[in-house]
Amino acid sequence: QVQLVESGGGLVQAGGSLRLSCAASRSIVSFNSVGWYRQAPGKQRELVALISRGDTNNYADSVKGRFTISRDNAKNTVYLQMNSLKPEDTAVYYCRASVDRYPWQYWGQGTQVTVSS
């Protein structure tokens, strides 16, 4: 069993920055990938950024150039640095770890990000 705990969310004005953290209960080196997802009210959950075991990063088009995903293996933590935030970035942000055996994935409980205009 793996626990993922997100933190760093909050209320920020448009143009501001936040850094989200996803702390894992075991080594993140063992994960195939770790992704940040978000879900706004009335919308489907969507992938925001992904970092693979080989440190390949992928981003949604809507956040490219503004968000950066990174990892600190020593701290078993994955970060999402969010700059130039927009009101449309408002959502609950979730961390997801992909693993190569059942149950194949783990999710955190989410952290709220609210961007005011």
By DSSP (H or I, 4+ residues per run), the number of helices equals: 0
Query: What is the general shape?
Result: globular
What series of H and E elements makes up the topology?
EEEEEEEEEEE
The span between the termini is 40 Å
Explain how this protein is built:
There is one protein chain. This protein is mainly beta and 117 residues long. The protein is built from no helices and 11 strands. A hairpin with a 4-residue loop joins strand 7 and strand 8. The termini are far apart. The model has no long low-confidence stretch (mean pLDDT 96).
Salient structural properties:
4-stranded antiparallel sheet; 117 residues; single chain; globular; mainly beta; 11 strands; 7-stranded mixed sheet
Overview in brief:
The protein is built from no helices and eleven strands. It is mainly β. A hairpin with a 6-residue loop joins strand 9 (91-98) and strand 10 (105-107).
Topology:
Layout: E1 4-7, E2 10-13, E3 18-24, E4 33-39, E5 46-52, E6 57-59, E7 67-72, E8 77-82, E9 91-98, E10 105-107, E11 111-116
Parallel strand pairs: 2-11
Antiparallel strand pairs: 1-3, 3-8, 4-5, 4-9, 5-6, 7-8, 9-10, 9-11
